[in-house]
Amino acid sequence: MSYAEPVNVSRRRVLIGTTATLGALGAVAALTPFVKTWNPSARAKAAGAAVTQDISSIEKGQMIVVEWRGMPVYVVSRTPEMLANLPKNDTQLRDPQSEASVQPDYAKNATRSRKPEILVVTGVCTHLGCAPGFRPDVGAADLGGPAWHGGFFCPCHGSKYDLAGRVFQGVPAPLNLPVPDYNIEGTILTIGT
Ligand code: FES
After folding, report:
1. What sign has the CA pseudo-torsion 181, 24, 59, 96?
2. What are phi and psi of 43, to 5 degrees?
3. For the segment 83-117, what is each residue's pLDDT rounded down to a tens digit?
4. Which residues pair with 118 in a beta bridge?
5. Which atom in ligand 1 lies closest to the alpha carbon of residue 154?
6. Where are the domains positioned within the chain?
7. Ligand 1 atom having least distance to the Cα of 20
8. Which residues pair with 151 in a beta bridge?
9. Which of 64, 97, 108, 121 could anchor a disulfide with 165, C-beta 3.0 to 4.6 Å?
10. What is the pTM for the complete model shown?
């Protein structure tokens, strides 16, 4: 950031961020209905208040979208097959160990999660903020055929992420999808603890 014009640059970034987030929400809304969650006041929400969601109804291999801080958060119930396929992607990824990526310490592991079977990532592409689509279909011809073990595909400029939200090489997105701070007690997911 240039110190010569801190106010203008800052405001521009806020506007860009807002636009990108709204675009992300709109795109996701078209694909996956948002789950109704306990919603705090608008003011508390803007400040990042936690939201809770009962995740017991997510079927294995399926994804729901929870809104937090005005952003879509993807919650995937990964199958044993999905988990077994994750290491097969490592040589194709930009940051397989998530060294440069944003996640809590408890999610800096091979599955990028507290519980291996539950993935929680922000559904905002790290390129320019579109909402990647959920593409769990192994071997999808349009995403690399046999080399595709399921993940997320961003329709804006073609970035691809695996089912741990790790970005592939050779796409515009520079980083893995961020993992927000969260907790799981029983079947209750709390995002933004
Ligand atoms: S915004 Fe996702 S690839 Fe550009």
Report:
1. negative
2. -65, -45
3. 999 999 999 999 999 999 999 999 999 999 999 99
4. 77
5. 2
6. 6-191
7. 1
8. 135, 162
9. 121
10. 0.79
